[in-house]
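batch_manifest entry 22 of 60
target: Ribonuclease PH
source organism: Maliponia aquimaris
requested by: lab member K.T.
priority: normal
notes from requester: please return C-alpha cells only, no post-processing; we will run our own comparison against the previous entry in this batch. if the run fails, retry once and flag.
--- input ---
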Amino acid sequence: MRPSGRNLSEMRAVSIETGVTKHAEGSCLIKVGDTHVLCTASLEERVPPFIKGSGQGWVTAEYGMLPRSTSTRMRREAQAGKQGGRTVEIQRLIGRALRAGVDRNALGERQITVDCDVIQADGGTRCAAITGGWVALRLAVNKLMKAGDIISDPLMSEVAAVSCGIYAGQPVLDLDYPEDSEAGVDGNFILRGDGRLIEVQMSAEGSTFTRDQMNTLMGLAEQGVDELVAIQRAAVA
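--- output ---
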C-alpha cells in the first residue's frame, strides 16, 4: 500500500490554472498533489551572445524554491550569494527539456525565459516545473503568433515529465515525498507529446534494479506523460 493510498499506476491529482500573473506573456500554476509550482514565460527580443546573428531563438529556464515551500524554512539562495548545485542542475534540466520541443529557427532571434518557482514541495518539483513550464511557454508563443511576429508555430510537441520508482519493492508512478525519500530506485522521465524521449534520469540508492524493472518504470512513465499531455492540451485550448 502506498502512503497516499493510490494504486501503483495512479497519478496524484493534477491541475493547471493559466493566466495567473498580470505581466508575463505566459503563466500558469500547476498543482501535482501537494506540489505547487508557479511558471511564467517572459519574452525578450534578444538572444545570448553565442547564437547572436544565427537567426535562431533560445529558450532557457530558472528554478527556485520559496523559503517555506518545505516543512522547515530554508534560506533564500540570494542570501547565500550563490545558487546551490541542485538548483543549477534542475534549471539546466528544465531549459534543455523545453528546447527539445522547440524549432528554434521558427522562433526567430528572440529568447523566452521560463521561471519556475516552487510554492509548495511534496516530491517531483522538477517534473511539475517542466510540465507547467511548457504550458507557460505555449501561451507566450501563442501571443507571438497572434501578433504576427512569427509565421509558423515553433513548438513541435508538448513536453512533460513524471517520476517513477521502486517503492517497497513495487514499481510506482508519480512519487510523492514520503515515497521519494524511501524509494530504493527512482527516476525522472521527460518525454514529448509525440512519445519521443528527451531525458531519463534513473538511480538506485541502497538497492539495484533490473532491465525488466527499468522497462516497467518506462511504461508507467509513458502512461503518466500521456495523462499530463492531455491536461496540458486542455489548459491551453
